[in-house]
Amino acid sequence: MIVAEPKPIKEVAGYIKDCTKILVVGCGGCTSVCMAGGETEAEMLAASLRILRKMEGRELVTAVTTITRQCEPEFVESISSKVKEVDAVVSLGCGVGVQFLAEHYRDKWVLPALNTVFAGGTVQAGIWEERCGLCGDCILHLTGGICPVIRCAKSILNGPCGGSQNGKCEINPDTPCAWHLIYEKLSAMNRLDLILQFHPAKDWSKERSGGLRNRKREDAVL
Amino acid sequence: MSDFKPKIVAFCCYYCAYAAADVAGSLRVQYAPEVRLVEIPCSGRIDPVVILKTFEEGADGVYVAGCLEGDCHFLKGNIRARQRVNYVQKILGELGIDPERLAMYNLSGAQGGRFAQIANEFTEKIKKLGPSPLRGR
Amino acid sequence: MKSGSNLEKVLSQGKFAVTAEIGPPKNASPEKLVQDAKILKGWVDAVNITDNQTAVVRLSSIAAGVHLAQNGVEPVVQMTCRDRNRIAMQSDLLGAYSLGIRNLLCLSGDHQKFGNHPQAKNVYDIDSIQLIDMVRGMRDDRKFLCGEEIKEHHPRYFIGAVANPFADPFEFRVLRLEKKINAGADFIQTQSIFDINRFEKFMEMVRRRGLHKKVYIIAGVTPLKSARAARFIQKRVAGMIVPDQLIERMEKAGDQKAEGIKIAVEQIQHIKTIEGVAGVHIMAINWESVVPQIVEMAGLR
Q1: Is the pLDDT of residue C236 over 90?
Q2: Does the residue C145 lie in any domain?
Q3: pLDDT tens for each residue of B56-76
Q4: Which long-range contacts (CB under 8 A, 24 or more apart) does B27-32 make?
Q5: Distance from the CA of C177 to the CA of which of A104, B19, C192, C294 falls in 20 to 30 A?
Q6: Rounded to whole angstroms, how far apart are CA atoms C39 and C87?
Q7: Which residue from B minimizes the CA distance to A57?
């Protein structure tokens, strides 16, 4: 999933300082699962923004709604009557959600309430970790299912580098060295030949360096 | 501020704090009249949104009272409640409201005296902190 | 001869090579480099110039290399993968060669987190082994990384790489060294050796795989300035091992600097006896003036 985290409330309050009526939109997709932008978080943010405004002696009217996924035009359209009523929309979706709302409601300010941080998963309740670098050219078959592109701070493909000690990454003693993990996994699988292979320079054109990416599945296009 | 009468809301678990309030009543133990009790089925039922809205509506202080740790009727409800209190305290701090205005207490259903003591202590603390910055807004 | 550099000559003639290392200044003046060149000239076969080491902005390693060369010291220019993509790196490789640089040391580079611009975006378009392969390809295959031919005047570097016998997993370090050799490394500089026993074990594994016959291994030595510095390296510098007894010896010494020099000399004398070691690389950053003394005391000149 896409993992996001809340922006400081005062920062969001700054974005809407000139508004009197806002719509706070939660997202039922990834940001709900990572507990940053679901129903509860949308209500908390709305209440927080009202409280801040109250302390200034001005009123802020908030409407709160959560849609199934902000990254689907169908769901985005479903709140059009609510959007019409307000000065601005505050989105608790990821960066995609904010943009889908902004694209759909062309005459509306749509503001982000979250910082979108990574593609990852829940390692335990309340703790999420990055796993995928979205490089567009998966090499997990060569690395024992552990991604060096995103889990190595230097994204090196022929690791581990000389900063790997006691299984930890040199840049953070709490972070496991991805290449150490790869080494252990391949060693356990009796496939160390894979780590001895030279991995040539990666084709980053499939990554964001190659410009905006899109994907099409013909049979789904109507 | 000597005539300041704080509004305090206590969210009390049915199995402990709320029962302890009954014990306090039957023992005729006096406690701060500023405290208004709200019964909840378990302290773990407390919703951060409800706490925040309580402040928004003008409470000067809020506390959640649950069972002693290890004694929750629903196993971990009181642990969750404490975590949520911590979470809302962080948000209160961001909003410029003293996080001390929110607290979590643990007690058993038999502790009528302890219930009164908590109510009094917390009321005193809020009196010292003065009215919530949201009062009269 | 692949590059015709002095370092390559010394190593290929089987002489025990001596190199040093200097960090360029954090300003735009060649003054310090000229001074260092004067100090080191005649004492060493070549001098490494770090490439924004620990991710702190410094005068460029290529420019510094040119200053050294102009002052009679052969440079080994370090190139890291942190700050440039393959386009910039190949461009700099052509440029450096055109300025007379012949020795290149390929490294991945310290992460920017340790430097003075932790806000920087890192590049790591290619890693150190891919860099070695790229430089070798430019020299031996006369091709840019993309495969396009370099029609004339291809750069012919003497290619260096690093090995850290003190990083983990230990048993993989020799295999990774082999990867670097296969990618095209001509010589190897090791991380500073303090734990000589571990280095001995490392070299034993190197010999078992016959790698010392495929590449010149230059052992890294760093004179310790004080017990405090030793403790700092032990605790804070990733990928280094400093044995406690070494620190204790420094602590007990009356003159810690003199003791540090003495230890370095003893280490060099020990390293010289290890089969497969082709030279020694003295890393006395910010203490360059001590290098001639160590070289002399160790009987290397």
Answers
A1: no
A2: yes
A3: 999 999 999 999 999 999 999
A4: B27/B112, B27/B113, B29/B112, B29/B113, B29/B115, B29/B116, B30/B116, B31/B115, B31/B116, B31/B119, B31/B120, B32/B8, B32/B119, B32/B120, B32/B122, B32/B123
A5: C294
A6: 36
A7: B137
Taking only residues 72 to 131 of chain B, the set having a beta carbon closer than 8 angstroms to any beta carbon of chain A reads 91, 94-97
ipTM: 0.92
Q: What is the pLDDT along chain A (222 residues), one digit of tens a residue?
A: 999 999 999 999 999 999 999 999 999 999 999 999 999 999 999 999 999 999 999 999 999 999 999 999 999 999 999 999 999 999 999 999 999 999 999 999 999 999 999 999 999 999 999 999 999 999 999 999 999 999 999 999 999 999 999 999 999 989 999 999 999 999 999 999 999 999 999 999 999 989 999 999 999 998
| A54 and B CB contact within 8 Å | yes
Report which residue type is found at C129.
I
For A2-118, the fitting CATH number among 2.40.128.10, 3.40.640.10, 2.30.40.10, 3.40.50.2300 is 3.40.50.2300
Nearest partner of A53 among A12, A84, A99, judged by Cα = A12
- Helix-, strand-, coil-residue percentages of chain A, each rounded to 5: 35, 25, 40
Give the tokens for residue B38.
Answer: 């709200």
Exposed / middle / buried, residue C134 (Cβ in 10 Å: 0-12, 13-18, 19+): buried
C-beta atoms of A158 and C239 within 8 A: no
Please name the residues in contact with C8: beta carbons below 8 A apart, sequence gap of 6 or more.
Answer: C1, C2, C102, C103, C158, C186
Whether C145 sits inside 8 A of A201 (CB atoms) is yes
Which amino acid is it at C100? G
Q: What is the DSSP string of C266-279?
A: HHHHHHHTSTTEEE
**Residue pair A31/A67 in contact by the 8 Å Cβ criterion:** no
Coil vs helix vs strand at A21: strand
Q: Let me know: does C32 contact C130? Beta carbons within 8 Å.
A: no
What does the domain layout of chain B look like in residue ranges?
8-129
| 3-class secondary-structure state, position C192 | strand
CB contact under 8 A, C124 and A154: yes
The confidence score (pLDDT) of residue B110 equals 93
With respect to residue C107, please indicate whether it lies within any of the assigned structural domains.
yes
Q: Please state the CATH superfamily assignment of the domain spanning residues B8-129 in this structure.
A: Lumazine/riboflavin synthase (3.40.50.960)
Mutate to test the interface with A, among B45, B56, B90 (most CBs of A within 10 A): B56
Question: What's the total number of domains in chain C?
Answer: 1
Interface touch A47/B94, C-beta < 8 Å: no
Domain that holds residue C209: 6-219
**Is C240 among the domain residues?**
no
**C208 occurs within a structural domain:** yes
Return the CATH number at C17: 3.20.20.220
- Taking the CA of residue A198 and the nearest CA in chain C, the distance in Å comes to 7
